[in-house]
## 1
Amino acid sequence: MSLDIWPPISPEELKVQIAETLKNELEWITTESLEVCRDLKHGLEDCYALLAPIDPGSTLVMSTPRNEKVKGTITRVGTRIVKGTLNLQLRTTSTTSLTIAPHQPIYIPALESLYTHLTQAVSLLDVTLSQERSPDAATLASSLTLLAESLDQATALLKGRPLTETDPTWQTSSCPAQHFTAATTTSSTGGGASTVGGVGAFAASFSTGGSSVNNPISFHIGIQESCVVLWLRVLEPVSAPVHFGVKLGLAIGTVRRLEHDEMDTVFKYNPSGDDSTLGHKKGNSGGGSGPVLSGKRSENAKTGPEEVHVREKVRVVSADPSLISLFSKLGFLGHVLGQTRRNLAAVLESFPQN
């Protein structure tokens, strides 16, 4: 079986007709891709709105399931945690109540980076769609490649690290003490309340033995699976002395260590943080509300890394409806963008390179 064109045309004219057909097809797919870009821009603006700093924000419950180790709420406005109160009843430190300082909100680094990627994506589409002359297919394909990279990185930030992996950034980017008002602790033995600054900074001295040990707490917040995740770690300096009663209890079995995946590892922990939680105030170290390792209070004091053990580790997860919706929208936009890029690439591959 053969296919003939009627009326017959010469081979030279056939080449001209093929080239003209490919040119028309390329113009058509470019126009269609630009229409998709307009839809993508509207979709990204919706995503942008979900992360916008609009009051009153999202109030999230931060509580551990089936126990009362951590109970409280935090409020997220945009990329910041602007207020929150947490009651901690951890086994290796006294009962503590933490309150986020209203004048020093906590910026979530993952959401800050996500906000930057969304801004870049919207700006790129603005430039692409605002040109007087429509871009050619090759230029449009390059722009869509950059857009796809931004969306992939934004989606990866919302997904976070796998649940089976430990995030090592807590050693350098835990929230320093200036994010909190002075913590109120209650001794489990005496029942009295006292005000200390044990979050994000080392206490000047450590009690030894009993349940009155008031160790510093690492407060690290991040994003996993579109949820706000809080890691609390009760820390102990490697050089801290071990009370004789604790040694004896471990030997005879009356005292048991809390088992977790970081119990036997020595970490280098920086209580001053890397300023990633300060957002636009990055670089302004500020002063902590609690004492630092040297025992001196200073508005601009920063301590260096210290070798510590993690005595207790608690992970608290709170699902954020806005972030879940944002992840879903980004996934859909990424699918539409991928299909558009494949269609454009298919036509470009069939077009002569010259």
Note: The radius of gyration is 28 Å.
## 2
Amino acid sequence: MKVVQTNAKLWEVPADRAIPPYAYSWNTALEDVDKDIRRVHANAPKIAYFFPHPFLLVRGESAEHKQRYLCNWLTSQSAWIVWVLISNTSPVIPCCWHDFLNTIPMISSNHWAWGPVGSRGRDTHSGCQLQASSDIFGPEFVRVTQAATSQVQFRDLMLNLDQIDDITKGKILWDLYKHNFRFELAVLDHLLVPQLWSDPDHSCLDKVCQIFPGNSQLTMCVEPFPTKNQGLASKELQEKCHYIEGFRVVLSSWPRFPTDLEASLLPSANSAHVWAVEKKLALFYMQSFFDNFGHPPIVPHLIPNHLPPPCYLWQCDRSLIFFLSSLLILFSFSLHSPTLLYLPLCSNQCFLCFSLSALCLSTFWPFRRSVPW
């Protein structure tokens, strides 16, 4: 029997301010996923990706490594998208994405070549690395990405590789989250209901595409970056309800689909019901993904229109927030109690109550754009 191993670090969000915020329901559902290794299927397959995992751009041995991954992806992403669209290429396993993004352009006597850090010449280890990349990504793609450049185009933005701020980096990460989430959803659907994908009367891919706004095609560089959250992450009730229902329809054919979600989500549903259904669907999806692949899925994120404040209290557990709120209420009642009005400790209680209020406010404040109310 195959031994399943999971990486606990994949559940930890890297401490990088550029990471766009989670969609609220998905963030809360992520905390409720049962991460017991015994749930993972014994023969869990390894999933390959058409795009690098966003964590590759924010995790690394050093800031230099992370900058190299980011620049290499920006340099190659437009050529890679074209290559995927025009060729019958296959997805790439994460370790190959890591090796490819960890290469640096180096000048030889004839032309540019890409090689790993520390390589000495094109005819030695770098030549082998270049050939390996050519075998995986295609020779034409590798040839295009060999050219050194200081400016690249991302969507409708022209970027200087040495002047990328956190908001711009957040947009790049958001784009990777979007594409990888859609790909993972299609892969898991194909794994759980293969009979539907092999049935010509069922257009499973079309159903998956209906969950997302637009034509669900790969994003080309010339398209402008969206200015508001759409689809599953939309804050407009009617739009959100439409895409949540499409998401529910796809998941309804999966094994162990919750019986309390079998009813259709009507357009007239109120906000509380829509958010409750979304969280249950998100939890079922993430639990199903973990049970079948042994690691957390990539989930929807919000468009990074602003940077989070430099405050780490927002990372506190919800139980701590509720505990502090309870203390605040307790001291508020004690301040209004007639038996305590004339105690000499009243001023100290006022100060403590004020401190707890400030603490709770600083805890909740970063969530103000994520909470649905």
Note: DSSP finds twelve helices and four strands in the chain.
## 3
Amino acid sequence: MKSSSLTPISIEADGAFVARDAYSNQVEYDTRVTANAISKFTGTPSAEYVTFGAKKGNYCAIMPGAAWSGYMDNENIKQLRVVEAGVGGPDVFSRALDGIIFGKGSTMIFMFRVGGFTYYTDKEAEGSQLEKLMDDYLNRQPPWSVERGSSLCQWNVSYYFLKFKNPQNNSIMMHWNLPDGMSKQLAELKATLATPEAQQAIANHGQRGMIQATNNFALAVHGNSLMNQVFYPRQYGWY
């Protein structure tokens, strides 16, 4: 599976990963990933998105049909209940939740499907540059959303990579503060992607991916049609 076709890669505390191919919808994962989290991807229906906490075994999986599943420490659950109450209760929260980004300690960002976000910072992150950045976008009118693919460092509150989306025009603003080595690699990657050769390669890949995605969709529709003919034959009046 090529890295350029992957949706955001979710990495657990020990480096185990889960990723989904954006075009084929195939899930790839490390066998060390927490079994409960993997079961959400291999089951039916399959999870859309998963994030992991700083402790092995902690996760949040977003399921189809406005549902979620997860396992967290007591302090995380305590703050989650506060957010639930603030948005109108567990049912409203479940329908709205688009993912939880776990940071160091009990710091969390709650992303919502309908736009906007909220967060909780523990004592170490209070007053940090991260908190000031989130307040900036949260207090805009209308509030921006935090997008999937964002990440918080789980061992240093100073490090983060966040994608904010403007709900009015869908523009994206990215902010990051990374360790020196990662910052250097990111700068090199940005320089490479700015070259004409890289831009053409990206365009070519996107076109191939769109063709593959279209073919996958057509195959699924055809398969569903065949299933309907086998199990729901209209000549017998079954629908």
Note: The chain has six helices and 13 strands.
## 4
Amino acid sequence: MHYQRLALLPQQLHIVIQTRYYASTTSSPFPFPAHPHPTPHQIFHLPYNASQQDIKARYYELVRHHHPDSLSCRDLPSSDRQARFQAIAHAYDTLRGKNPQTGARRDWGEYADELQRRKKRWERQQSTRYDYAHPPRYKWESNADDRWKDNMILTIGIVSLVLGIAPSLLMLPFSVHKTRQKHLETASDYSKVRAEVVEEGEERRQSMKYRVETMKLQKDARDDPTDVNA
């Protein structure tokens, strides 16, 4: 009854259902993927960073379990067994970097044409693109008749540079001497001001001392009774 119902379904859907059914009931530790278009890594049940040794070891295990004459595939139709075995072989060639049709090792895989096309397009864009950060340098060409102009421009530039620097170099000793003289004058003025401040402070101290003594004598005179009786 089950097979009669499957026979009424479309051929492609019938194959998908059979594949999922046998994949779920097989005793293989690495069952064949149930979806119709599995990737090589999904067929081998390996991550994308698997080594070549892991790929080779897994290939031997898949061949042992999914060989058309193995016991684990005895319930599958002959066409499905052959298709699975061919898919495993093609996946193994792909993971090893070989072309399944010719057996030659590919450097770019199945995306070589697309990569070359994108590379050429990028090169065309770079060739027509103006580099604002590094603009092209223009070559300065001059003949023998224009050399005197170049020499004159160079001479004028050197003379202008010398005239601009010479006054500063000539005035440097005078400016140093003048700065030193100002420094000495400032130090002398500071010493004079300090002496005046010390002298003024001494005078104030003597004046305050005299006033304190005078006030003390006046107080003693007021407190003395003999002076009052007199």
Note: The chain is about 70% helix and 0% strand.
